[in-house]
Automatic annotation (TrEMBL), chains A, B:
Domain HTH marR-type: 48-180
Keyword RNA-binding: no
Identification of the protein by name: DNA-binding MarR family transcriptional regulator
Biological processes per GO annotation: response to stress
Segment forming the signal sequence: none
GO molecular function, one term: DNA binding
Source species: Kribbella caucasensis
Highest rank taxon of the organism: Bacteria
Length: 201, 201
DNA sequence: TATTGTTATACTCTATAACTATA
DNA sequence: TATAGTTATAGAGTATAACAATA
């Protein structure tokens, strides 16, 4: 573990072991190793610790909380997303919705089947194109979304539990900036309204 | 989207749409909706924006970068973890390693097969228990790890690309604190040396 | 009888491709 | 011919369970 002492121009690195950890991309599980920073000497600010590990743990915890919060929603997180998007942006065609959410169109079919069965959305024929179907939230869907959003807000707050108000603000701001850049460098889905990015930087 | 105006005692919420997004837990892909904050009025600090979305985007980007960096390592991120752990902590028994890394023991078998085939680690019989096998990194494994760590450091730095030095420090500190709490509330694997947490709080 | 590690099997979720009905 | 949506199939990756060797 001493191999980095030269190429990192190590101020603090030489005093501790920075133990990087990576993550599987296929299962969403954070299969990280143990907590990363082992202080060898007296020095070393601990924030040099592994970003990936922390990122993974936090993300995983949020994902778990969110999944629990959305337990009874057909399709789980994805069902929520469909609900949230159609309610926020109005009726959408199935394929557009799929593209926007990064969901495969074949998956979208099953997802909508379940959501429709649960009475949260409805498929309406698109008057402009008889091939297409417009996805419309129902009244129940709207009510459900409200509830879900409250639950998710709780999950968020729970994850940030040991930060005080000011720290949360700072953290969210910095995270948001990093995220916006990441998203613009390598966009997930649609570009939508990234135009507003500037005000976040 | 007006349903939260009362129960959130909304200062800023009433002025914008906070559009929460959740994530699938099974594929590690961030199937989020579009960027979240749409300013309706003039006010609203943008940091109120969706935590989950940002978290997911950043994590996903890091995971992608890390996966690319570990492209040629058998087992990818997991292979790296095995390497890093055995090198940092010395030879370990297969099952202990699996438990520590949160990898299923059946998966560990295949993973070690591949790592051994690549000449990065070796299985030695445990003199203390003839059932068990000790996983030992090879010289090649050690060299490889050095290289991989440099690559991962680059990935990290890339992800935090638009933060300056000071901001990175703040971000990492806060993230680390959130992560340590998340990990202690709901530990992934072993408890190891969480004793050192205090200095991070 | 319990445990280490291996192998075989089943299951989940995803990705590919073929099909229908419209355009 | 191309596109919206559906269905069927195959694939990757994981988890479960049964197994051999040892404790």
């Amino acid at each position: 573990m001493s191999c980095h002492e030269d190429n990192l121009s190590s101020r603090t690195y030489s005093r501790q072991i920075v133990f990087r950890v990576a993550y599987t991309t296929y299962d969403g599980e954070v299969t990280s190793s143990s907590p990363e920073v082992r202080h060898r000497g007296a020095a070393g600010t601990s924030v040099e610790a592994d970003l990936g590990w922390a990122l993974g743990v936090v993300f995983k915890r949020y994902a778990k909380q969110a999944a629990a919060a959305l337990d009874d929603v057909p399709g789980g997180p994805r069902g929520y997303q469909v609900l949230a998007t159609t309610i926020a942006e109005g009726p959408k065609r199935q394929l557009d919705l799929a593209a926007q959410l990064g969901i495969d169109r074949t998956v979208m079919t099953y997802l909508l089947d379940d959501l429709e069965k649960a009475g949260l959305v409805q498929r309406h024929p698109d008057p402009a194109d008889r091939r297409a179907r417009l996805i419309d939230p129902t009244e129940l869907g709207r009510k459900t979304l409200c509830d879900l959003e409250a639950r998710l807000a709780e999950a968020e707050s729970d994850v940030l539990g040991n930060l005080d108000e000011g720290e949360r603000l700072v953290f969210r701001t910095l995270l948001q900036r990093v995220a916006l850049r990441a998203n613009s460098v390598d966009p997930l889905h649609n570009a939508c309204d990234v135009a507003e990015d500037e005000e976040l930087l």
